Amino acid sequence: MNATSDGHRPVREVTRTDRLLAALGGLLAAYVSLAVADLVASRVRPEASPVVAVGGAFVDRTPAWLKDWAIRTFGENDKAVLQLGILLVLALLAVGIGLLALRRRVLGSAAVGAFGVLGALAAVTRPDSDSAVDAVPSLVGAALGALLLYVLIGRLLAPRAGTGTAAARADRRSFLVVAASTGLAATGAAALGRAVGSPVEENATASRAAVRLPRPASPAPPVPAGARLAVPGISPFTTPNRDFYRVDTALVVPKVDANRWRLRLHGTGVREELTLTLRDLMARRTVERDITLACVSNEVGGPYVGNARWLGVPLADLLREVGVRPPSEGGPADQLVARSVDGMTIGTPVEDVMDGRDALLAFGMNGEPLPFEHGFPVRMVVPGLYGYVSACKWIESIELTTFDAYDAYWVPRGWAAEAPVKTQSRIDTPRPFGRPAAGTVMVAGVAWAQHRGVRRVEVRVDDGPWREARLAAEDTRDTWRQWTYPWEAAPGRHTLTVRATDGTGATQPERRTATMPDGAQGWHSVVVTVEGGE
Question: What is the pLDDT of residues 67-76, one digit of tens each?
Answer without folding.
Answer: 677 777 777 7
